[in-house]
Amino acid sequence: MDCRKLNDKELAKRRFIFAVLTFFMLVNTGVNVGIDFLLNGRITWSLYPVYSVFFTWLICIAPLLYKYRGFPTLAVSLGVFSTLLLPYLWLMDLVWTQTRWFMPIALPISLAAIVFLWLGYLAFCIYYMRSKKRVLS
User: Is residue 93 part of a domain?
Assistant: First the structure.
């Protein structure tokens, strides 16, 4: 696996992508909240896209802040996703006032999805390492 540190040029590219991504996600959030406030006089439905944009932003910036290249970058994104998925869904459940769906539906499905994602990542890493051995030998 190639786990070398990034050089200054690559880090500068990542910082630029980070800045552009952050800018557009902030604009998206501002537009959503602004429209909601103009239409309703208060913040109602825009909490859903605000939470979702923030969740997506955290997952997207994780590999940009990681200072190495290679497969561990994917592990960083999966780790952030795995860590934040349940709190994100719980927050959405709190905002959603009609029925509670986190415990009976979201929790078991999310836990199963996280386990399968990590098993898939593990299988991919094993396949990658075996194919590298074939190439090297």
Answer: yes
